[in-house]
Amino acid sequence: MLGEYPAVRAALASGRVDPALNEKLAMLAERTGAPVIYALDTQGMTIAASNAAQPDSFLGHDYRFREYFTKAMASGATEFFALGSVSGRPGLYLSRRIDRDGRPLGVVVVKVEFGKIARAWIQDHMATFVTDADGIILISSDPALQFRTTRPLAPARRAALIATRQFGNSPLAHAPLLLDEDRARLSDGTPAVTVSLPVPISGWRLVHMEPLDAALRTAAARTRWATAIAALVTIAAMLAAWWLYERRKRNAGARAELEAEVARRTAELRATADRLQIEVEQREASDQRFRQAREELAHANRVGSIGTITASVAHEINQPVAAIRTFADNAAAFLARGAPDRAAANLEAIVDLTGRIGTITAGLRRYARRGAGSIGPVALDEAIDGVRLLIGDRFRAKGVTLDLPTGPEARLTVIAGRVRLEQVLVNLLQNALDAVADWRDARVSVTVGRKGRDVVLTVADNGPGIDAAIADHLFTPFATSKKDGLGLGLGIARDIMTEFGGTLDLVPAPEGAIFRMILVKA
């Protein structure tokens, strides 16, 4: 992820320390739990670090001698365990080379420390540790064993490790352990049972040693419990056998009669269960078809409104496209004048504008996507921004004022599905726009309020209002006051609100029409 981050690539390419990048690396290190994250240029010099603001900052330090730098530059990526040259704390360094156009820009390094894991392993008279390919103990429940060897090191290899100071001043002495499978012993000479597993880092192994006498005591205790339980089970079985024998003698005749009655009742119950199963399956299939048809109808309603929304979205896209053209021309002019800083500012503006276009197209794709989606916490301001994007320009083209909430009330969170909540709002706003399109001083407003634990949204217009002849059955399918309307939109909207656990109603108004949506606050 850091390799794709533009600010990292820009810092490595320029070789300049960017304070903003240091702050971002510090935030990333805090959230991931990494002790430090830093970037080295091709000469091994630190140009950005998450600990830049700390006394032990890595900025300006030369790490060209570190294997995690040399190996990453050579092979692209590596893992390297060593003592920190500044902090003095051991850890695993994960490094990766950053390239541009086939040319290396530098290396990004993330350090991982294992102190919490080692402390969690501490148990009396037990040893848990991790060894590397040379048999050197890297992480241990016993600090005295760290950086000791579990098997002899060749003199040349020992000299090489000491020379690189990978393990600081440790002499890499042999650990007072015996790991032979048949005669393993802890550091105090206690016989032990040893288990070893590979770790998904090249050459590492996890080893756990437990005193043999403790394991034998545990096994003996389990054996005693098993014997006692077996005896109890045997006695219980004998008593049960005797009781069954006596019962059979007393109830031989009654048993036959009972079995016959049980068989008859079983047959009746089986027949009843079969009928109920068929009814349940039919009801589930019918319910599934109903839910599928309802979702298909809701999706068709969204797709049907895409035609009226497209023009609004096209206008929203044309504005940033025109601005991109202007900034691009300005950048070219500044480059021709030898003003790269001003050209860079124009290019940054172009990046922001392309992000805006991506947001617009993503919103339109999300609105047209098939599927009911999940129901959960939805931020009202995000849904309102989506509605403003989808339908805002249509209001401006008609000269109708659209008031959408922007204050603290718009930042409430409700239980809903974002796409379907947008669908309900778009449906109500399009109906309101159609009602006031030819009205003088036309205005449509959306307000947000609280009612106990619920959130109340109202969509109001100052148009002619709803005809009383259809007001009572306005949410009934095919009931509409529009000449070319199908009368399905409000019915679908009410079904969606019901699925959210809320309501949608037409409320009396002195002028125009007011629709009230009640949603559960998250």
From TrEMBL:
Its EC number is 2.7.13.3. It is found in: Cell membrane. Residues 312-522 form the Histidine kinase domain. Coiled coil: none annotated. One of its GO terms (molecular function) is kinase activity. The chain crosses the membrane at residues 225-245. It is an enzyme of class 2 (transferase). SUPFAM superfamilies: ATPase domain of HSP90 chaperone/DNA topoisomerase II/histidine kinase, Homodimeric domain of signal transducing histidine kinase, Sensory domain-like. It is a multi-pass membrane protein. Pfam families: dCache_1, HATPase_c, HisKA. InterPro entries: dCache_1, HATPase_C_sf, HATPase_dom, His_kinase_dom, HisK_dim/P_dom, HisK_dim/P_sf, Sensor-like_sf, Sig_transdc_His_kin-like_C. Keywords: ATP-binding, Cell membrane, Kinase, Membrane, Nucleotide-binding, Phosphoprotein, Transferase, Transmembrane, Transmembrane helix, Two-component regulatory system. This is histidine kinase. It comes from Sphingomonas albertensis. The lineage of its organism: Bacteria, Pseudomonadati, Pseudomonadota, Alphaproteobacteria, Sphingomonadales.
